[in-house]
Amino acid sequence: MARQPSYSSHDPLLDARAAVTLDLHGRTEAEARAAVEKLFRSSGASGKVVHIITGKGKGSRDAPVLKNLVRGMLKGSLAPLVRDWGLDRGEGGYRVLLR
User: In the β-sheet with 20-23, what is the strand arrangement from edge to edge?
Assistant: First the structure.
């Protein structure tokens, strides 16, 4: 089951080179959801580390919108496609190892 681990500075997922980086800055919630789903369901991403940049949410009025959206997707609808995931070192996105 996909989880959000607590990383040490030696975590191999953080050090693995991302095969794909998806920057969600400037996208609406609907656009971001569609882009993440498309990436995760593409056959070329299977078994690879992807880096999803959401930003820290400092520009959001209340809670971080894109960061919370992606976290919810990783725990929910996309969990069957995910082997491991967690915040990146800067906490402005996620590193995800796909199945």
Answer: 20-23, 49-53, 93-98, 82-87
d(CA 7, CA 15): 11
Instruction: Report the predicted TM-score, pTM, of the whole model to 2 decimal places.
Output: 0.81
Structure token pair of residue 55: 């930003």
Q: pLDDT per residue over 9-50, tens digit each?
A: 556 677 778 999 999 998 999 999 999 999 998 878 888 999
Per CATH, the number for 12-98 is 3.30.1370.110
Pairing label, strands 93-98, 82-87: antiparallel
The domain spans of the chain are 12-98
| Type of residue numbered 34 | A
Q: pLDDT tens-digit profile of 50-86?
A: 999 998 877 667 767 899 999 999 999 999 999 999 9
Q: Beta-carbon neighbour count of residue 50 at 10 Å? A: 20
Distance CA 24, CA 8 (A): 26
